[in-house]
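JOB MANIFEST
job_type = single_chain_structure
chain_count = 1
residues = 104
[input]
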Amino acid sequence: MPKQLAAAHWGLPCRPVMGYTPGVIDKDLLEILACPQTHQPLRMASAAELASLNGRIAGGKLVNKGGKPVEHKLEEALMRGDGKVLYPVRESIPMLLIDEGIET
Protein backbone atom coordinates (compact mmCIF):
# COMPACT_ATOMS: atom_id res chain seq x y z
CA MET A 1 0.00 0.00 0.00
CA PRO A 2 1.48 3.39 -0.94
CA LYS A 3 2.50 5.55 2.02
CA GLN A 4 -0.17 8.18 1.38
CA LEU A 5 -2.92 5.57 1.30
CA ALA A 6 -1.58 3.92 4.45
CA ALA A 7 -1.47 7.27 6.23
CA ALA A 8 -5.00 8.10 5.15
CA HIS A 9 -6.17 4.67 6.28
CA TRP A 10 -4.89 5.34 9.80
CA GLY A 11 -6.20 8.91 9.86
CA LEU A 12 -2.71 10.41 9.72
CA PRO A 13 -1.89 13.60 7.85
CA CYS A 14 -0.95 12.93 4.24
CA ARG A 15 1.61 14.95 2.43
CA PRO A 16 1.66 15.21 -1.34
CA VAL A 17 4.37 13.38 -3.22
CA MET A 18 5.41 16.60 -4.96
CA GLY A 19 7.44 18.68 -2.53
CA TYR A 20 7.92 15.76 -0.13
CA THR A 21 11.24 15.84 1.69
CA PRO A 22 12.58 12.36 2.47
CA GLY A 23 13.82 11.99 6.01
CA VAL A 24 11.58 14.67 7.49
CA ILE A 25 8.61 13.69 9.62
CA ASP A 26 5.68 16.05 9.32
CA LYS A 27 5.63 18.48 12.28
CA ASP A 28 1.90 17.92 12.88
CA LEU A 29 2.37 14.16 12.90
CA LEU A 30 5.28 14.42 15.33
CA GLU A 31 3.08 16.38 17.74
CA ILE A 32 0.60 13.50 18.05
CA LEU A 33 3.04 10.59 18.13
CA ALA A 34 3.81 9.03 21.51
CA CYS A 35 5.83 6.16 22.94
CA PRO A 36 3.71 3.00 22.61
CA GLN A 37 4.78 1.84 26.07
CA THR A 38 4.73 4.94 28.28
CA HIS A 39 2.78 7.39 26.08
CA GLN A 40 5.47 10.03 26.57
CA PRO A 41 5.93 12.51 23.71
CA LEU A 42 8.58 11.83 21.10
CA ARG A 43 11.12 14.11 19.46
CA MET A 44 13.54 13.70 16.58
CA ALA A 45 16.85 12.21 17.73
CA SER A 46 19.83 14.54 17.40
CA ALA A 47 22.77 13.87 15.09
CA ALA A 48 24.95 13.22 18.16
CA GLU A 49 22.48 10.65 19.54
CA LEU A 50 22.31 8.89 16.17
CA ALA A 51 26.11 8.89 15.84
CA SER A 52 26.50 7.33 19.28
CA LEU A 53 23.99 4.58 18.55
CA ASN A 54 25.40 3.96 15.06
CA GLY A 55 28.80 3.37 16.65
CA ARG A 56 27.26 0.71 18.87
CA ILE A 57 25.47 -0.81 15.85
CA ALA A 58 28.76 -0.98 13.92
CA GLY A 59 30.34 -2.75 16.89
CA GLY A 60 27.52 -5.30 16.96
CA LYS A 61 26.62 -4.28 20.50
CA LEU A 62 23.06 -3.04 20.11
CA VAL A 63 19.84 -5.02 20.48
CA ASN A 64 16.28 -3.78 20.48
CA LYS A 65 13.75 -4.37 23.24
CA GLY A 66 12.59 -7.49 21.39
CA GLY A 67 16.09 -8.95 21.80
CA LYS A 68 17.03 -8.76 18.11
CA PRO A 69 20.37 -7.27 17.05
CA VAL A 70 20.09 -3.87 15.38
CA GLU A 71 22.06 -4.34 12.17
CA HIS A 72 21.22 -1.30 10.04
CA LYS A 73 22.57 2.20 10.55
CA LEU A 74 19.97 4.65 11.85
CA GLU A 75 19.42 7.56 9.48
CA GLU A 76 16.73 9.04 11.71
CA ALA A 77 14.85 8.07 14.84
CA LEU A 78 12.39 9.30 17.43
CA MET A 79 13.57 9.70 21.01
CA ARG A 80 11.21 9.24 23.94
CA GLY A 81 10.76 12.32 26.13
CA ASP A 82 12.90 10.91 28.96
CA GLY A 83 15.74 10.06 26.53
CA LYS A 84 15.84 6.40 27.55
CA VAL A 85 14.31 4.77 24.45
CA LEU A 86 14.62 5.51 20.76
CA TYR A 87 12.40 4.25 17.93
CA PRO A 88 13.88 3.85 14.43
CA VAL A 89 12.36 5.64 11.46
CA ARG A 90 12.65 3.67 8.22
CA GLU A 91 11.78 5.31 4.90
CA SER A 92 10.09 8.13 6.85
CA ILE A 93 7.88 5.64 8.73
CA PRO A 94 8.28 5.56 12.53
CA MET A 95 8.59 2.01 13.87
CA LEU A 96 6.47 2.54 16.97
CA LEU A 97 6.35 -1.01 18.26
CA ILE A 98 7.58 -1.70 21.79
CA ASP A 99 9.89 -4.48 20.55
CA GLU A 100 11.47 -2.09 17.99
CA GLY A 101 12.50 0.33 20.75
CA ILE A 102 16.21 0.71 21.45
CA GLU A 103 17.36 1.55 24.96
CA THR A 104 19.89 4.34 24.95
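[summary]
The chain is about 25% helix and 15% strand.
The chain has one domain: 23-103.
exit_status = 0
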